[in-house]
Amino acid sequence: MSRTAVVLLVLLLAAPATRAHAAGKKSAQSTQTSKKSSKKSQPKTVAAQQSETPAQPSETPAQPSDAPVKQAEEPGMDMDFDLLEPSAAAETPQLVDPKLERAIAQRRTMLTLHQGLGLATLTTLAATVVVGQMHFHDRYRGGGDTRRFAALHTGLVIGSSSLFAGTGLLGLFAPTPFKKELRLDTITLHKVFVSLATAGMLTQVVLGLVTSSQQQEGKLSQVDFATAHQVVGYATLGAVGAGALMIVF
Q1: Where are the alpha helices (DSSP H) in the chain?
Q2: By three-state DSSP, how is residue 213 classified?
């Protein structure tokens, strides 16, 4: 076979392979080109869809970052309960005892009168002591024994004694709705001074009657009884004043 024939045969056999290779290469290039075009067109399609579709309002409003997180309540976790069982005393309205109210009102009224009469007694007793001192000088200290102060002194004695007795009865018979423990306070001191004043008032009455009696008239012992009457009068006035001071202050 000649050389020319061999070359033609090789060209004929190599031509189909060359065409297939070129066709494959062209097909790969066209595939890559289509992929690139699809990638470029996809964002535009999504953007177009977003521009065509109107924005819908969010169903759940946005909460601030510092808002407290509400935990979902689990069934059976109800915290509304009482630690203590309701008592009958709490459910039943408490009624005020009418007797207690009357006793409190009566005590308040009586003690108010007691305080007012006590100050009046103190004033009257002070006047009695002053007039009694003047009467003592008139009869036993060279005043001439005119007895010009005798009637006034007797009237003040009756008035102060009556006021003292009425004041004491108001304090003694005032109702005591509440029990009080015995302790050292102004009320206790008031009672102590009033007790001393009561003893002094009784002693004053006895000494006054003895001094002015006919059996003692003109005797030296009459002066002694009058002096004792005077001293006890000042002591009684001091006790009444101290008792009133405890109540006022």
Answers
A1: 3-52, 88-91, 98-140, 150-173, 186-211, 220-248
A2: coil
> How many Å apart are CA 15 and CA 33, to the nearest integer?
27
Separation of alpha carbons 124 and 153, rounded Å:
11
145 and 208 Cβ atoms separated by less than 8 Å: no
- CA angle, 67 then 72 then 73, to 5°: 130
Which one-letter amino acid corresponds to residue 151? Answer: A
> Exposed (0-12), middle (13-18) or buried (19+): which is 82, by Cβ within 10 Å?
exposed
Could you tell me the two tokens for 126? 């002070």
Quote the CA–CA distance of 197 and 191 in Å, as a whole number.
Answer: 10
User: Each residue of 186-229: pLDDT tens digit?
Assistant: 999 999 999 999 999 999 999 999 998 988 888 889 999 999 99
DSSP state of 178: S
What is the C-alpha separation between 22 and 14, in angstroms, rounded?
13
Cα–Cα distance, 22 to 138 (Å, whole number): 166
Distance, CA of 236 to CA of 194 (rounded, Å):
9
Tens of pLDDT, residue by residue over 153-195, are 999 999 999 999 999 999 999 988 887 777 888 999 999 999 9
Residue type, 174: A
pTM of the complete model: 0.59
Q: Which residue type is seen at 246?
A: M
